[in-house]
Write a structure and sequence with these properties.
The protein has no helices and eight strands. By secondary structure, the chain is an all-beta fold. The strands form two sheets. Strands 3, 4, 6, 7 and 8 form a five-stranded antiparallel β-sheet that branches. It has a three-stranded antiparallel β-sheet with strand order 1-2-5, with no helix packed on it. The protein has one domain: Sandwich (Immunoglobulin-like).
């Protein structure tokens, strides 16, 4: 007896399990945030990812950073302000379009504010 598998093609599912870790690089005037995630279903096509972030409470536009398909689904966002809370979300894309955004994740960056 042969098993039949049905796969749907279309836009990808949003990334899940977004984890954030803020860290300061010795000697640097800014801090970085390590972002990791679990990709959702690809929609049947190769997918790439974008990270969107902003200062929490700013109500401004998100800054988007295209990261492609990084190894281990991890990317470091650099040049952020110290001692500042940020909101992050991710979005996947394939040849059929973009996923819905991931759930919002928040992180407080370490260190004192830079002069």
């Amino acid at each position: 007896m042969n098993a039949t598998h049905v796969f749907f093609v279309g836009t990808p599912d949003p990334p899940t399990d977004v984890k954030l870790e803020g860290f300061k690089v010795p000697g640097a005037r800014t801090v970085s945030v390590k972002v990791s995630w679990t990709p959702g279903y690809s929609g049947g096509f190769p997918q790439s990812f974008s990270i969107h972030y902003r200062k929490k409470g700013s109500n401004g536009d998100f800054i988007g950073e295209y990261v492609g398909t990084p190894r281990n689904y991890t990317h470091t966002v650099k040049d952020l302000s110290s001692n500042t809370e940020y909101e992050f979300m991710l979005q996947a894309a394939n040849e059929r379009g973009k996923s819905q955004p991931s759930k919002m994740a928040q992180v407080m960056t370490p260190g004192k504010k830079c002069p």
